[in-house]
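Quick one - first record:
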Amino acid sequence: MYLARSLQWRGERCAMVGAVAGDATLHQKPVGRGYVHLSATDHMPWAGLQGQSLRGHEFHYSSLDGLPADTRYAWRITRGHGIDGQHDGVVMHNLLATYSHLRSVAGTDWARHFVDFVRARRSLGARSEHPERLAA
């Protein structure tokens, strides 16, 4: 919610960071609650998870509205609500913004894929910020 354009609650709207091109709205009742089943899309940034099924849970009283039609999602929802009842995990550059809290079950080692993603990005950043390291 902090990364959204705005946050609305009880009729008041406040500007937020704006990194995610959507607006968060808080509701009186849960929007998503319970277990989620996710299927990783081709937009999933953590290499090796595309096409795999993941399990987790969600519990949120907010919705994320006004996302652009071309929003890329990391997951297709097969059980649960996520962002819009069909998708979860907004992907923007190196950001993956999601309502789902992942679990490592049934051999899905998502944490290793996440750490590999972070290490790869860190390595790319070190190369671009410190060209002298490339000579080594």
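second record:
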Amino acid sequence: MIEFFTTYAEYWADWAPRLRAAAVVTATLSVAGFLLAALLGALLTTALRMGDAWLKSVAHAYVQFIRAVPLLALLLAIYFVLPEAGFVLSGFWAGVLGLGLQGSAYIAEILRGGLGSVHKGQREAGLSVGMTPWQIFRHITAPQAMRVMLPPLLNGYVSLLKDSSLCALIATDELMLTARAISSESFLPMHIFLLVGIFYFAIAFPLSMLSRWLEQRLMRGRCVMGST
């Protein structure tokens, strides 16, 4: 057991810079993918809630289709099929696009559910006192909907962060691809993948706990508001 851990001290000077650089790529990839997913999800939610019948049907079909397609299949299609149509993307940007498209369907459902949790009578009350639709959304709908949406959005980012490891299969220089390269050079796969697993855990676990804490705290706030 002691020998197992002393191996890290022996190779750390070589491994650390490469893993740090890969961790930056993973963080950038996941954040960029989540921002794209949030943008597309907001547009989908707008179409589902406010669009005409045709637009709603298109948005609904997109959400159902994307949720049914495995992320790996989507990434491979973007990376290998799009160049046939003249659109060539690097592994990083193909990963961002794939994560964003996949995540947008789930975020759209989160946003739609959060906004739908606010009773429509509150909107009618706002209109009756002369508020504009934007004022109603900003001061009434959005603050209440965020109580419902924030915890699952955090969970959505955690899931997207873990899914970003699949981008190693399209030559994105993130943590998993770097770990595979180091393990093939050093013939120490258990050491490397254990280290990478600890990295993912160190990020995902605190965010999951934060999501749970927020959910409990915000639900407590809703109960207090409902009882008054």
